[in-house]
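Long-time lurker, first post. I've been practising inverse folding by hand and with some scripts of my own, and I keep getting stuck on stretches where the structure tokens seem ambiguous. Below is the full token string for one chain I'm working on. Before anyone asks, I'm not after the true native sequence, just a reasonable design that respects the backbone. If someone could post their per-position residues I'd love to compare against what I wrote down in my notebook.
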């Protein structure tokens, strides 16, 4: 966890008028998660909006992935999100209002080459979210997924660098090749992705649940 970046983000939110605190926690540590949610319940009356988002695993082919890699990333990318969601749902259901928004990847619709671990594990989160959405809908809690395409983030930069190295190309060549697959002819801005998340978290999205929204500039060609 980059605590400096976390603190800086909290500082920006405070400057804009928000009430915030930053608290780094190991998502693989149930005790730490319990303590964090207990603090939020105590000081803020519970979590109303939960955005599940995790870093991605390293690029890997489908064959010969070590078993311990599957275990490691299943814990950090899937079980941790399910666990923290289970912790915050009781207060949402009691209030009869809540939002659970999970960020996945375009790989859950069209698997991305050399990202087998990500494609597989994020697909499991998609099935879990859809199942959960039906269970908590009567309680006023919505559960949705956001599917980002090529958004200009550090993660995208890392993937482009890995591809450039793998294919013996320059970063510029890789980016140009990726942009050519996007009808809008550019990578998305983080703010464009965030706007969709903010909409799903709002009252305006109160009748939207169990769905996936793509933020990909038209990249995914399937219906």
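-- Answer (accepted) --
I ran through it position by position. Result:
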């Amino acid at each position: 966890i980059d605590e400096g970046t976390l603190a800086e983000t909290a500082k920006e939110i405070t400057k804009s008028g928000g009430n915030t605190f930053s608290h780094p926690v190991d998502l693989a540590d149930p005790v730490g998660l319990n303590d964090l949610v207990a603090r939020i319940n105590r000081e803020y009356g519970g979590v109303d909006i939960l955005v599940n988002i995790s870093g991605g695993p390293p690029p890997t082919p489908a064959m010969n992935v070590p078993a311990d890699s599957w275990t490691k990333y299943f814990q950090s990318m899937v079980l941790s999100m399910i666990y923290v969601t289970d912790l915050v749902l009781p207060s949402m259901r009691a209030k009869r209002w809540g939002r659970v928004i999970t960020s996945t990847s375009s790989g859950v619709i069209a698997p991305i080459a050399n990202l087998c671990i990500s494609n597989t594990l994020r697909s499991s989160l998609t099935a879990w979210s859809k199942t959960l959405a039906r269970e908590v809908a009567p309680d006023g809690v919505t559960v949705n997924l956001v599917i980002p395409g090529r958004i200009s983030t550090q993660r995208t930069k890392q993937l482009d660098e890995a591809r450039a190295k793998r294919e013996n190309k320059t970063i510029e060549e890789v980016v140009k090749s990726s942009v050519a697959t996007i009808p809008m002819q550019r990578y998305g801005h983080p703010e464009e992705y965030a706007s969709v998340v903010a909409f799903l978290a709002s009252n305006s999205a109160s009748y939207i649940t169990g769905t996936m929204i793509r933020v990909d500039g038209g990249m995914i060609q399937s219906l």
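A couple of notes from the structure itself: The chain has seven helices and four strands. Residues 46-215 form a domain with the Rossmann fold fold (CATH 3.40.50.720). Happy to go over any region you disagree with.
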